[in-house]
Amino acid sequence: MSTSPYIVDIAGSASFEQLVIENSFQKPVLVDFWAEWCAPCKALMPLLAKITEEYNGELLLAKVNCDIEQDIVARFGIRSLPTVVLFKNGQPVDGFAGAQPESAIREMLKPHVAEPAPAAADPMEAAQALFNEGRFADAEAVLKVLLTENNEHAAALILYARCLAERGELGEAEAVLGAVKGDEHKQALAGARAQLTFLRQASELPDVASLKTRLAQNADDDEASYQLAIQQLARQHYEPALDALLMLFIRNRSYADGLPHKTLLQVFDLLGNDHPLVTAYRRKLYQAIY
């Protein structure tokens, strides 16, 4: 017996009248004629249940055991199993006999019932996607709702802090990061702190145009190379920054007590181990060291 509110077992003609005929005036009802001995019936049943659940109440499924409900079978002239019939407004309007692929079942349903709404995106995934698109205010709005429900949600706090940082609210971002508990998101936390560091440093450095002018005059100006990389990191121009830091490390690995190497590691924390730039530049850094 089904525990779903959208799936029912028919028990007698009166049950069929109420659960199928009457309900079909409100929304389509899919009727599955099946039997215990019918292997294709049992293969089809979970697929019908899955599809029905996805419609979230806009479609109902009624199961008729043909070995028991022989009066109903005779009434509708069911000759082979499985047979599936779609009822609307008290009448059969469509259906099929024999097991069918999911695509064919969905195609049969299309003219009769609205497509199910896509599943709501996970709030964290939605916020991360918005952040990646540079839509920081929109990401913040999603995160605020999430944090209202759970103000200790570590991943949400970290991403919220990064949004604040991108808007220049560095002090508030630091305070939010201070509220993160536990070590589960240690790398993400380190990355967010690195972002704050880059943004703070960039605010105290010469502007990009001045640094590029210095490098045009002297391509080996280590200070200008490093400062330009920081400005690029603050603007999320990660690839040119990583390239500049790596070149500086190769050219002068002792610069400022190994600062290019330390900064590369900070960027790796910021982007995360799965980022393709991290994979590529970790390999390049390893080759440069060894």
Report on this model:
By secondary structure, the chain is of the alpha/beta class. It folds into 3 domains: 7-109, Glutaredoxin; 123-185, Serine Threonine Protein Phosphatase 5, Tetratricopeptide repeat (Alpha Horseshoe), CATH 1.25.40.10; 205-289, Serine Threonine Protein Phosphatase 5, Tetratricopeptide repeat (Alpha Horseshoe), CATH 1.25.40. The chain has 14 helices and 5 strands. It has helices at 13-22, 39-54, 70-75, 102-109, 123-132, 136-149, 154-166, 170-178, 186-203, 208-217, 222-234, 238-251, 259-271, 276-289; strands at 7-9, 29-34, 60-65, 83-88, 91-97. The chain has a 5-stranded mixed sheet with strand order 1-3-2-4-5, sandwiched between helices. The longest helix has 18 residues, at 186-203. The chain is elongated and about 90 Å long.
Quick structural summary:
It contains 14 helices and 5 strands. By secondary structure, the chain is α/β, with parallel strands linked by helices. It has 3 domains: 7-109, Glutaredoxin; 123-185, Alpha Horseshoe (Serine Threonine Protein Phosphatase 5, Tetratricopeptide repeat), CATH 1.25.40; 205-289, Serine Threonine Protein Phosphatase 5, Tetratricopeptide repeat.
